[in-house]
Each structure stands twice: as structure tokens, then as C-alpha cells.
Design goal:
Layout (H helix, E strand, L loop, with lengths): L2 E6 L10 H11 L7 E7 L14 E5 L9 H11 L6 E4 L12 E4 L4 H4 L4 H17 L2 E4 L2 H10 L7 E3 L18 H7 L4 E5 L8 H10 L6 E5 L19 E3 L5 H10 L2 E4 L8 H8 L4 E3 L13 E3 L5 H12 L3 H14 L5 H20 L1
Parallel strand pairs: 1-2, 1-4, 2-3, 4-5, 5-6, 6-7, 8-9, 8-11, 9-10, 11-12, 12-13
Keywords: Transferase
Protein name: Glycosyltransferase family 4 protein
InterPro entries: Glyco_trans_1 (IPR001296), Glyco_trans_4-like_N (IPR028098)
């Protein structure tokens, strides 16, 4: 019997995909015809693209709802949309859920960062009061790492027995030998120079300042730094010391195939984040055969593979020594580690992740029918 699942996918209804959108897209993409699943995928903004993968086993619907900035799309528009449909189960894949749940509802909480960062006014009320009620009513909760599971159970003890850990996967492009060309702006800025790759964007906990300091002190005068993850208007140009200007560049949003090329060409990837629910770059760099430098904090403790160098988060001298070691690594040693890393990273499979999601769906529906 085909199971009809509604998927909330506002993170696909955007000009550029970010981490949560990639997760939603890959779950949809990796369900097969033999899985007997039909989707209705919901977006909220008709004015921007809806990046639902094709072919999709089902259909997509984009609808706006008056009062969206007060979260009424999620709390009222979506439940009203579900009435009169044959959707049997709703998956809210982006941390939050409606209080009114006409069908059994599952939520994916990626991490507790939205609740830990300072908020005020309606946003604070929505996260800390409205969602407290909504989460109590959810049939199940999916999260992406043991670290996130612990944080969720500590914040909401009533969810502890409803939590399932399903790790993310790695995009197929990382296992392909095909290299997509980089955007001309990136190629011309680098002009063939070796480079470090910073992943993370402008958020303070991602620590772009550490990447700049590593570039300044590592001893590679011809080395450049490429920063990824910065949206429009968030590039910290004022933070770049005068001595480094001309050696620090920012990428536009890249397709997965372009990102793989950027990883593969880097001397090393630098990922100085202080907290992550999963941490895509720690795995992606190793999948691309590139050494990656990070701290084993939160979920990253489970992502230490053959091409990872790890240091305490506040020990800058240890970070610097590790980077210098990577830059001096003989080619044969790097190639050997890269081969081991590509084998290690196979455990992160989007198909396996999709299968685990289907198990949760069917378990929730079976319990609801009883």
C-alpha cells in the first residue's frame, strides 16, 4: 500500500540551497518507486524557485498564506491545506511544527542552536512557547547526530523516547570523477595560486577570524583563502587585514558539482566551527580527498576520518602546527590517506538515510492505526 507523506520544504523554496535544504532535497531524491511512497511537498513563496528534485514521486504545492511573517503559514495555512487531502503523515523537516496536527506529525530537529541563540519578541515566543506545545504533540522526532540527540533530550525531556538518530549522507557528486568548472570569478581571482578553503559563513561560532589568522601565520606567502557560505551582504571585508587583501576571496553560491571541484583543488579545508548538528564540510572534504582541520566538538567528534586533523577549539598554536603539517605532507602520504578517506566516507549514504526515514514513517503510521 502506497504511503502518502506531506513534506514541509520551505528550505527548498529559496534562491540558494543551504544545509537544511540539501537534507530535504536528498531525502526526496533518494526514495525509489519500490518504496511505495507518494509525496506532497509544500512550499510557501510563489515568488522564488521551488527546488524540488525531478522526477518526484508525487507532486509539489507552493501556496502563500496571509500573516506568514507571524508564522501563520505553518500554524494555520498548512493544517488547513491538509484537510480534505489523502496525506496520511506530515514530516516537518525544518526544526518546527504546527500545534494543530490533522495527521500524525514527525519533526526533524537538526540541532538546538535556534533555541540557544538570543531571540526576542514574537520569534522568542514562537520558539520557546508555541513550539513547546507543538513538539509535545509530535508523534516522533528525527535528529542527525548523537550530539543533537543529547541536546534535544536535555532541553525537552518529554521527547527522549520519541527520538531517532538518522545521520546525513554525502551527495553523489562527491563519488564522481567528473570535475565541473568553477565560476569564472573564482578562477580569475585565484589565477592558479594554491588556496585554503574556509567553510562556514559569517556566523560568529564559525570563526572566520581563525581562518584569516591561520593564513597570516602559516608561512605560505603565495597561499590564498577562499571563503564559502557567505550570503549577500555578509562578506566580512572589513575583517581582512591589509596585508591579506588580494589573497582572500569569497565564492558565490555553488552547485554541488562546483563545490566538489573547489574542495579537490584546495591545499586544505579549514572548519573552525564551535558547534554543529552534523557538520557537512568535515565529511565532504574527506570525500573529495582533501585534508580538513576542525575541532572534535558536538557532532564533529563522530566525523574524524583518515583525512581529518583535529585540535582543541581554543588552542590556536595547535591549529597552526596542524595546518603546517598538512601543507608539508608528501604527495604519496596525502594520496594514501585520501584513498582511505573515500572508503571511510561511504558509510554516509543518503539512500540509507532515506530508508531510515521510511522506517520511522511506517512505524508512526502503524502506531497511529492502533
Amino acid at each position: 500500500m502506497t504511503l502518502h507523506v506531506g513534506m514541509v520544504a520551505r528550505t527548498l523554496n529559496v534562491p540558494h540551497l543551504r544545509g537544511t535544504g540539501r537534507y530535504v532535497q536528498e531525502v526526496l531524491r533518494n526514495v525509489r518507486p519500490q518504496d511505495d511512497i507518494s509525496w506532497t511537498v509544500y512550499g510557501h513563496n510563489p515568488a522564488v524557485p521551488f527546488r524540488v528534485p525531478e522526477p518526484l514521486q508525487g507532486h509539489s504545492e507552493v501556496f502563500d498564506f496571509r500573516g506568514d511573517r507571524f508564522q501563520l503559514w505553518e500554524q494555520l495555512g498548512l493544517p488547513l491545506r491538509l484537510r480534505g487531502t489523502d496525506v496520511q503523515l506530515l514530516h516537518c523537516a525544518e526544526n518546527t511544527a504546527p500545534i494543530w496536527q490533522p495527521v500524525p506529525t514527525i519533526v526533524t530537529i537538526h540541532d538546538t542552536v535556534p533555541w540557544e541563540e538570543p531571540t526576542q519578541g514574537l520569534t522568542h515566543h514562537y520558539l520557546h512557547h508555541v513550539q513547546n506545545i507543538a513538539l509535545r504533540r509530535c508523534a516522533a522526532v528525527i535528529t542527525i547526530s548523537e550530539s543533537s540527540r543529547r541536546d534535544i533530550a536535555a532541553r525537552w525531556p518529554f521527547l527522549a523516547d520519541r527520538l531517532t538518530i538518522i545521520p546525513h549522507g554525502i551527495a553523489d557528486e562527491f563519488f564522481s570523477d567528473t570535475r565541473a568548472p568553477l565560476p569564472d570569478t573564482v578562477t580569475s581571482a585565484l589565477a592558479g595560486a594554491p588556496y585554503l578553503l574556509y567553510l562556514g559563513g559569517a556566523q560568529k561560532r564559525k570563526r572566520f577570524d581563525w581562518a584569516l589568522e591561520l593564513l597570516a601565520r602559516c608561512g605560505g606567502e603565495d597561499l590564498h583563502l577562499v571563503g564559502c557560505g557567505f550570503g549577500a551582504g555578509t562578506q566580512p571585508l572589513d575583517a581582512i587585514p591589509p596585508a591579506l587583501r588580494g589573497r582572500v576571496h569569497f565564492t558565490p553560491f555553488l552547485q554541488d558539482a562546483e563545490l566538489v571541484t573547489l574542495y579537490r583543488g584546495a591545499a586544505a579545508a579549514i572548519y573552525p566551527t564551535l558547534y554543529e548538528g552534523f557538520g557537512f564540510p568535515a565529511v565532504e572534504a574527506q570525500a573529495a580527498g582533501t585534508p580538513v582541520l576542525f575541532s572534535p566538538v558536538s557532532s564533529l567528534v563522530d566525523l574524524v576520518g583518515p583525512l581529518a586533523w583535529t585540535n582543541a577549539p581554543l588552542d590556536f598554536e595547535a591549529w597552526l602546527a596542524s595546518l603546517q603539517q598538512i601543507l608539508q605532507l608528501p604527495a604519496h602520504a596525502r594520496a594514501e590517506r585520501a584513498e582511505q578517506a573515500r572508503a571511510w566516507v561511504r558509510q554516509f549514504s543518503w539512500r540509507r538515510s532515506a530508508e531510515r526515514h521510511l522506517e520511522v514513517y511506517r512505524d508512526v503510521l502503524a502506531k497511529a492505526s492502533r
